[in-house]
Amino acid sequence: MIGRLNHVAIVVPDLAAAAARYSGPLGATVSAPQALPDHGVRVVFVELPNTKIELMEPLDDGSPVAGFLAKSPSGGMHHVCYEVDDIAAARDRLVASGARVLGDGTPKTGAHGKPVLFLHPKDFDGCLIEIEQV
Amino acid sequence: MIGRLNHVAIVVPDLAAAAARYSGPLGATVSAPQALPDHGVRVVFVELPNTKIELMEPLDDGSPVAGFLAKSPSGGMHHVCYEVDDIAAARDRLVASGARVLGDGTPKTGAHGKPVLFLHPKDFDGCLIEIEQV
User: Fold this and answer.
1) CB < 8 Å to B82, chain A
2) Other residues' Cβ atoms within 10 Å of the Cβ of residue B14
3) Among B4, B20, B17, B11, which Cα is nearest to B52's?
4) Minimal C-alpha gap between A72 and chain B (Å)
5) Hey, what CATH class is B5-133 in?
6) pLDDT of residue A67
7) Contact, A46 vs A56, CB < 8 A?
8) Does residue A111 surpass a pLDDT of 90?
9) ipTM of model
10) Partners of A45 in the beta sheet?
11) What is the average pLDDT score of chain B?
């Protein structure tokens, strides 16, 4: 069911400094920063030949990732995003298996303007999984 | 400098159960388990169209990932691995930038039989980065 790894998301305390590390010492191509107010984050994408790394910092104290940084001030890996063909079918299959979908189960619009859902990390070995319909 | 995302590694408390979640509800292709005694882990690879997810459990209490599970008993994301063409040149560039390489800076042999090094997570926003020469 899951297809490509769309991206890995990493929460960072200072987006400009993090972007400079990926474009400098790591020598990758990094996009311009963009605010995603619906998600409470500002992000850049590190463009790799086969996938992307999403670096994100909170837009404000109410950001969903502000709590993550409060626990892990240095930042850390936040989630992985897998592509699916049909997000409603994917959700139904996951829920039938006993996995929990965060929120009310209605897909939201993700960073790429596509429908997304998040799965409960407790059901996947502590890993927060986003699924995105492409 | 960094090329493809080779894999994302996730530490899991029960490899067979985790493999079943990825092959079942998530519907992915999962390799047979293999022990990597040099790394103190047993792993399976979730084969995605563009990259791999490495699920790993400790081989024994002395495993480098046993401490991770002691802190996070449910498991969690552990590291990301980027491909590089020349690991010695990559190491020298990173060290020159002030980044710390774990161990004595001599590449070890990774899960795929290739030279690998790990970078200090404090230098990369709390994210443990493996680089692998391909």
Assistant:
1) 26, 48
2) 13
3) B4
4) 8
5) alpha beta
6) 94
7) no
8) no
9) 0.96
10) A54
11) 96
- The CA distance from A44 to B38, in Å, is 36
Closest residue by Cα to residue A39 from A20, A11, A17, A18: A11
Whole-number pLDDT of residue B113: 87
Judged by a CB distance cut-off of 8 A, whether residue B37 touches chain A is: no
Regarding pTM above 0.95, the answer is yes
Which positions 100-129 of A are in contact with B (Cβ < 8 Å)? 121-127
The whole-angstrom distance between A40's CA and the closest CA on chain B is 19
Identity of the residue numbered B7: H
Both tokens of A64, joined, read 């969903």
CA distance linking residue A92 with residue A78, whole number of Å = 24
pLDDT band at A11; cut points 50, 70, 90: very high
Are B50 and A51 within 8 A, CB to CB?
yes
Domain boundaries, chain A: 5-133
Residue whose token pair is 């104290």: A61
Summarised one tens digit per residue, pLDDT across range B44-100 is 999 999 999 999 999 998 998 999 999 999 999 999 999 999 999 999 999 999 999
